[in-house]
Amino acid sequence: MVNAAFGATAAQAKPQDADPFRKGDFVVYPAHGVGKVDRVGSEVIAGHRLNLIHISFAENRMTLRVPVAQARAAGLRKLASPDALTDVLTILRGRPRVSRLMWAKRAQEYLAKINSGDLKALAEVVRDLRSSGDGDGSSFSQRNLFELALDRLAAEFAAVAGTDRAGAIERLSQVLHQAGRGDVGRTEVGQVDGDGEKTDRMAASACA
Question: pLDDT for 153-164, tens place per residue?
Fold first, then answer.
């Protein structure tokens, strides 16, 4: 069965990828978040030659091998554009969606969104669980899902902006804090805070 599966993968037609993955690219894999392409090349596995993408994830020191022919279907994608990050900030500034479902059901939906690889779905989880970030009246599982979603989101912001994850978390937390206070829309591009630093929207300033 294993040989048959490898054989089927190896025998697949290889459509021309208009934007192929290359060594050095930062990419997003749904279940693991942001990683870096270390190598793209062919290997013989179970008697079949496959063209594989080697992706390393520094956060958990893991390496993943994904067949090139199945990469897109598996949800592997390149980093979001600055415009997409601006859309994410708009979502974060929005009002949390209230659900009447039992927490166990909602937790499953949130986890599915986190592992979907969809940046907007990830932002929706952060927005809807932002009250969990304060720890007031929230359960351990709520805070855990919020922190997981925020960390995944910050990792992609950091990779696009070329900054560190801690700084990205801080900036995103500021956006959430402002939204929670009802300051949505008050921070405009080019405004300056009390320290004389620009408070541009993160995607516009850091990712330009």
Answer: 999 999 998 889
Phi then psi dihedrals of residue 4, to 5 deg = -65, -40
**What is the CA 10 to chain-centroid distance, rounded?**
29
The DSSP symbol for 192 reads B
First to last CA, the chain: 49
Question: For residues 133 and 62, what is the distance between their CA atoms, to the nearest angstrom?
Answer: 28
- The dihedral over CA atoms of 186, 81, 62, 163, expressed in degrees to the nearest 10, equals -50
Domain-by-domain residue ranges, the chain? 2-78, 82-206
**Complete edge-to-edge strand list for the sheet that includes strand 33-45:** 62-67, 48-57, 33-45, 26-29, 77-78
**Domains 2-78 and 82-206 alike in fold:** no
Q: What is the CATH number of domain 2-78?
A: 2.40.10.170
pLDDT grade for 17, boundaries at 50, 70 and 90: low
Q: Which CATH class is domain 82-206?
A: mainly alpha
Q: Which two tokens stand for residue 136?
A: 């007031």
Q: Give the pTM.
A: 0.74
